[in-house]
UniProtKB/TrEMBL annotation, chain C:
This is Xanthine dehydrogenase family protein molybdopterin-binding subunit. Coiled coil: none annotated. Residues 19-123 form the Aldehyde oxidase/xanthine dehydrogenase a/b hammerhead domain. The keyword Disulfide bond does not apply. Pfam families: Ald_Xan_dh_C, MoCoBD_1, MoCoBD_2. It comes from Streptomyces olindensis. InterPro entries: Ald_Oxase/Xan_DH_a/b, Ald_Oxase/Xan_DH_a/b_sf, Ald_Oxase/xanthine_DH-like, AldOxase/xan_DH_MoCoBD1, AldOxase/xan_DH_MoCoBD2, AldOxase/xan_DH_Mopterin-bd_sf. Residues 1-20 are annotated as: Disordered. Keywords: Molybdenum, Oxidoreductase. Residues 9-18 have a biased composition (Basic and acidic residues). The keyword Membrane does not apply.
């Protein structure tokens, strides 16, 4: 049992129902890294803060809190998103994967995590979980035929897009790294391209 | 951020009636701008009507050959859709030139249109801004305004509209579908956003309670020769300093149709009607392009620190017009 | 020696970082923890006349609002930026005037929005100009550098020189913006204070807190296990840690203060803007006769910090007549501070751009010009160099980059809309080292434990210090465990000034070498608690050197300038460094490349604008302050020469965290000139400037 899942301080001055719901709070269920969590959330709570404060999953980082750095990137229903801009209440029923859940149940890290280690694709580590989750999303998007700003407009639509260095750079540009590990990150992503 | 009520709408009607029954309500789409502004205290809704699960998430071909894009289609899905890429390349390119992969995965078509300016004075509650707080003044006019408008600005507001997508929609003669208390209506995309005048708080022609339900593009089953180009401070993930969307059809050695719109120059995507008129029937030469674009940009009134936008926009437009012409010529030759 | 040093050992904390389990300062889930949100001042100069907290206190979940009227009294700090909520004075816009403590982040933010502050605003002056009447020559600039140095007759020598360059450059204010915002979690228990903070050195934080709260240092524990970057902005304690400790004391709860990104530009330092005037006089063969570098900059009203940008001109080139001077004006601006290679980064941008201009003036290869001005001794001090391989870096870089055969004519390599060019610049950074302590213990299980209060801000300190220890002990690397990042450990200086590894490593080396000797004398099994040796390098590491000690480097850049948009793209950056011995090839390379990337930002994308009307930096978030993104960064190569320098430290290292940024901006700027034929003298080289410059040149 996950004892942390309902850790919250009830706001004084409100009369919640049995579930703690009132007009500013709602019960919300999310699957996070495969585990269901049902919480009564303050409507203002964004997914990033829910992960970090309520579930103790601090892998997703808060770099800017405004969708401008990518450090909070997680996968929601398989798509990479900035978790700082998602109200948790609006995600009821969604499936969330964070950096902590990428490896699955096994001991072995995800191939991207392994590649980041081997390439020394980080320094301070603060942007790293976001870079890795974003890269997972990039691989899926390219395979699904999503073009990018640098994709040749003449490339056939609906076909997988090969990820060369320029494609990787453009697609990961929503993830800032102030330590300047960019070349290594691009190499690490190249390492795992099937 | 103040506390707010949350309502998840299951249908368009449910959404508009929930909006009507909650004072101070706002529709919540992808949230990439609204949540940002709520954190800043610029937006203080008492209730959010979540419209992300409305059945408005399809891109579909219309019987007349046009395309209807649901308001909840995410930007990344819009840009990747084969019909959009093949027939309206400027739209796909414009969307992909904006924001980041993560933001495009969240942002919706409707929300993209309704995003607010990124003027730093608008975003800072401690400074005057007529758009945020009518009558408080404009901090940018005498402040830092390198990124601000050169066309159509007013004494009250010099902000620009930040969307890339909307610029392409304006050039492509798109129309915005709305549904509200008075029913459904359509507004030309080029007229959807307003100039600031003396009411800069009003970004668009949308009426209280109205919801953007989709965008309609005119028939183009053969594909519209079009392109989008943007200049920015870094190679990706930055708002435009200037941008241009161009639709160009050349037939029998003359311009048969031209749609031209600028981004980041004004409070709205700037449909360049004067340039288009000048181009119509002209031979597609560089000189003709320069003449037409200069005609349009002669209306520019740069501020102290943003005069560069005029030659930048001119260069971008002439470049895209020339490239589209070259492509058309190459295509015909082959 | 077992040869651990120099090996590309994998980062010890790497698995934690890639799996998301590495914990940063705001991530300590202490039971009952509250969150706090500061309120920044909305005037640039004046006094707070009243803080109305009534509305904030009714916000559900708000526990307390701290203001200058009710916050715990602090003793006067040495660093005036830490005297938060002590008086009603507002020294600059963004200065914190209140702090809301609440049960949740949401409540803290809502509470902060509800605080009403009234001010008595005064007129402010935030605009630095070259002729500002407030400019004065300080006794000392940053790092103890003299404000003014003059030798010979620089004006006379300049006037009579055959070739002359007299130019001005401007580097805008810049912001460090580490990815982890400044954050601290504090709690008080039985009169003891425990703090987790995001800092480049926790001994300094502990000392500051002890002073502020009047506590003996033994009652304070400060840890910084993982730090999400700093680049100088976390080199000194910042308001977050003081506020967290105050709020925790006031509320009796553990409190986290994680500063919102938008508030950072005003309260955690910035690289001050610098206005440079360079006058270079040379003979027809390019030998400098006169070198004058004058720097104008700003500081705040509460702290004198002088960006020592004229200092590298005291190190770089032989010129008999020279003047290097700093002038600073105290304005109503946020307090500037360290940002990666303070002094050297902006100073070398200007000096190395001017050298390129002189080479053009002389019609001489810019590498050759630098070679001809290579000094025998450090020009300013007259001291011999401990080692100086600048010429070798330039030559090796030229070879790797393919410099030979370069057509020097500017503005001639056109490919469609693009103009291509290449540029070169030199780099230098001083060797700094401070006294440190360390302990090493041999345990009965055959492992060794090294303890030192080093801080890993991303440099790989854990890894490289273990390598140093393993070699000094003569044991395999995997047998050495290392503990860093807590003031409970043997005290050590901060990670800053590219001095961390040298300072900590010296003490680790000494402790391990001493332990090895002790073990050699030891017979029989080790006692249960093991055998320990300690070291303290006070008096050794900080001893005055008889040599001038600097690292050197050469930067090469290849750019493409779009004549349609004015956009500049850097296709290739190459650096060659002579920085003593590189102790870990893997993490070392990452540091060089990281510095070069920040230099690329300085050249092309980064800049903060001081808003004269409002007195703050307009670019307050990461959407408007343009840190380079992936797409900005093309191929980057970092190489280094093996340097054997006996005048450094037992490892023979010079420090590598900063030199990567130093010459990068000049190399890019010089390449842009080579591409376009236009000389740009103000950073960053954004499309507005570049396009306007190219159009102006054409007209």
């Amino acid at each position: 049992m996950d004892t942390r899942s309902v850790r919250q301080y009830g706001p004084p001055g409100k009369v919640p129902d049995d579930m703690g719901n009132d007009q500013h709070h709602s019960e919300t269920t999310l699957r996070v890294n495969g585990k269901p969590h049902t919480l009564t959330v303050d409507h203002r709570r964004v997914l990033l803060d829910l992960l970090r404060e309520d579930l103790g999953l601090t892998g997703a980082k808060k770099g800017c809190d405004h969708g401008q750095c990518g450090a909070c990137t997680v996968l929601v229903d398989g798509r990479r998103l900035n978790s700082c801009l998602l109200f948790a209440v609006a995600l009821d029923g969604c499936d969330v994967t964070t950096v902590e859940g990428l490896a699955g149940d096994g001991e072995e890290p995800h191939p991207l995590q392994r590649a980041f280690l081997e390439r020394d694709a980080f320094q301070c580590g603060y942007c790293t979980p976001g870079q890795i989750c974003s890269a997972v999303g990039v691989l899926a998007e390219a395979a699904a035929g999503h073009p990018s700003h640098v994709t040749d407009p003449g490339a056939p639509s609906g076909q997988p897009v090969p990820l060369d260095r320029d494609e990787i750079r453009e697609r990961l540009s929503g993830n800032l790294c102030r330590c300047g590990a960019y070349p290594r990150i691009a190499e690490a992503v190249e390492d795992v391209i099937p | 951020m103040k506390e707010f009520a949350y309502v998840r709408a299951g249908s368009v009607e449910e959404a508009t009636s929930a909006y009507a029954s909650h004072a101070g309500a706002r529709y919540l789409g992808g949230g990439t701008n609204l949540v940002d502004l709520m954190k800043l205290g610029v937006e203080t809704p008492a209730a959010l009507i979540d419209v992300t699960r409305l059945p408005l998430d399809a891109v579909e071909e219309l019987p007349d050959g046009g395309l209807r894009i649901g308001a909840m289609v995410r930007n990344s899905d819009l840009a990747a859709h084969p019909l959009v890429r093949d027939r309206y390349p400027a739209l796909s390119q414009a969307v992909l030139a904006g924001a980041s992969g993560q933001l495009r995965n969240a942002a919706t078509t409707g929300g993209n249109l309704l995003q607010r300016t990124r003027c730093p004075y608008f975003q800072d509650l401690s400074k005057p801004c007529n758009k945020r707080e009518p009558g408080s003044g404009c901090g940018a006019r005498d402040g830092v305004h390198r990124d601000h408008a050169v066309l159509g600005h007013s004494a009250h507001c010099i902000a620009t509209h930040p969307s890339d997508m909307a610029v392409a929609l304006a050039a492509l003669d798109g129309r915005v579908e709305l549904y509200g208390p008075e029913g459904a209506r359509r507004v030309a995309a080029a007229d959807f956003h307003r100039l600031p005048g003396d009411r800069p708080e009003q970004d668009t022609e949308i009426r209280p309670g109205e919801l953007v339900t989709g965008v309609v593009l005119p028939a183009a089953s053969a594909g519209l020769p079009s392109a989008y180009r943007k200049a920015r401070d870094r190679a990706s993930y930055a708002f435009a300093l200037a941008s241009v969307a161009v639709v160009l059809r050349v037939a029998d050695g003359v311009v048969g149709h031209a749609g031209l719109a600028f981004g980041a120059l004004a409070h709205r995507p700037w449909r360049a009607r004067r340039a288009e008129e000048a181009l119509l029937g002209a031979a597609p030469t560089r000189a003709a392009f320069e003449h037409a674009v200069d005609l349009e940009l002669s209306a520019a009134r740069p501020l102290r620190d943003n005069a560069y936008k005029v030659p930048l926009a001119r260069n971008l437009a002439v470049d895209v017009l020339s490239r589209l012409t070259d492509t058309a010529l190459t295509r015909r030759a082959s | 020696m077992t040869g651990s040093v120099g090996a590309p050992a994998e980062r010890r904390e790497g698995r934690e970082k890639v799996s998301g389990t590495a914990r940063y300062a705001a991530e300590y889930h202490v039971p009952g923890r509250a969150q706090a949100w500061p309120v920044p001042a909305a005037v640039a100069r004046g006094r707070v006349t009243g803080v109305d907290t009534a509305a904030a206190l009714t916000v559900p979940g708000v526990l307390a609002v701290l203001t200058h009227e009710n916050a715990p009294r602090l003793r006067e700090p040495d660093d005036a930026t830490l005297a938060v909520l002590q008086d009603p004075r507002v020294p600059h816009r963004g200065w914190f005037v209140a702090l809301v403590v609440a049960e949740t982040l949401e409540a803290a933010r809502a509470g902060a929005a509800a605080v009403r502050v009234a001010y008595d605003a005064e007129g402010h002056d935030v605009a630095l100009t070259a002729s500002h009447p407030g400019l004065y020559v300080p006794e000392e600039a940053n790092a103890g550098a003299p404000g003014l140095r003059e030798q010979g007759d620089p004006d006379g020598a300049f006037d009579s020189a055959a070739a002359r360059v007299d130019v001005v450059y401007r580097v805008p204010p810049l912001h460090n913006h580490p990815m982890e915002p400044h954050a601290s979690t504090a709690r008080w228990e039985d009169g003891r204070l425990t703090v987790h903070t995001s800092s480049q050195g926790t001994n300094a934080v502990r000392a500051a807190l002890a002073g502020l709260f009047g506590l003996p240092e033994e009652r304070i524990v400060v840890t910084a296990e993982h730090v999400g970057g700093g680049f100088g902005s976390k080199g000194t304690p910042r308001p977050d840690v003081v506020l967290a400790a105050m709020a925790a004391r006031q509320t009796g709860r553990p409190v986290t203060v994680s500063l919102p990104r938008r508030y950072l530009p005003a309260v955690v330092g910035h690289r001050a803007p610098t206005l440079h005037r360079l006058r270079l006089g040379a003979d027809e063969d390019g030998h400098l006769s006169s070198l004058t570098h004058e720097v104008g900059t700003h500081t705040s009203r509460i702290k004198e910090f002088v960006e020592h940008a004229a200092v590298p001109a005291r190190v770089m080139y032989a010129a008999p007549h020279r003047r290097t001077v700093h002038r600073v004006a105290a304005l109503d601006v946020p307090s500037p501070s360290w940002m990666r290679a303070p002094g050297e980064a902006p100073g070398m941008y200007a000096l190395e751009s001017a050298m390129d201009e002189l080479a053009t003036e002389l019609d001489m290869d810019p590498i050759e010009l630098r070679v001809r001005n290579e000094p025998d001794v450090e020009p300013d001090s007259g001291l011999p160099f401990s080692s100086r391989h600048l010429v070798e870096c330039l030559r090796e870089g030229a070879r790797r980059f393919g410099w030979a055969g370069r057509d020097p004519r500017p503005g001639t390599r056109r490919e469609g809309p693009l103009l291509r060019g290449t540029g070169v610049a030199a780099a230098t950074y001083p060797v700094m080292v401070g006294p440190s302590t360390a302990a090493a213990r041999a345990l009965p299980d055959g492992t060794y434990l090294v303890r030192v209060n080093a801080t890993d801000i991303g440099t790989g300190a854990r890894t490289v210090l273990a390598q140093v220890g393993a070699d000094a002990l003569g044991v395999p690397l995997e047998r050495v465990r290392i503990e860093i990042g807590s003031s409970e450990l043997p005290s050590a200086p901060l990670a800053g000034g590219s001095s961390g590894t040298a300072s900590w490593g010296w003490a680790v080396h000494e402790a391990c070498a001493r332990l090895a000797r002790r073990l050699a004398e030891h017979t029989g099994p080790l006692p249960e608690q093991g055998v320990e040796a300690r070291a303290d390098t006070t008096g050794t590491a900080d001893a005055e050197s008889e040599r001038a000690r600097h690292a050197f480097g050469a930067h090469f850049a290849e750019v493409a300038v779009d004549t349609v948009s004015g956009e500049v793209r850097v296709g290739r950056l190459l650096g060659v460094y002579a920085a003593g011995r590189v102790l870990n090839a893997r993490t070392g390379r990452s540091q060089f490349v990281g510095g070069m990337t920040m230099g690329l930002g300085m050249a092309l994308t980064e800049g903060s604008t001081m808003d004269a009307a409002f007195g703050d930096f307009t670019e307050s978030d990461l959407a408007s302050y343009h840190v380079p993104v992936h797409a900005d960064v093309g191929e980057i190569e970092a190489h280094w020469l093996d340097e054997d320098d006996p005048w450094l430290n037992p490892m023979g290292s010079k420090g590598i965290g900063e030199i990567g940024i130093v010459g990068t901006a000049a190399a890019i700027g010089n390449a842009v000139h080579h591409a376009t034929g236009v000389r740009f003298r103000e950073l960053p080289l954004t499309p507005d400037r570049v396009l306007t410059g190219m159009l102006g040149a054409r007209a």
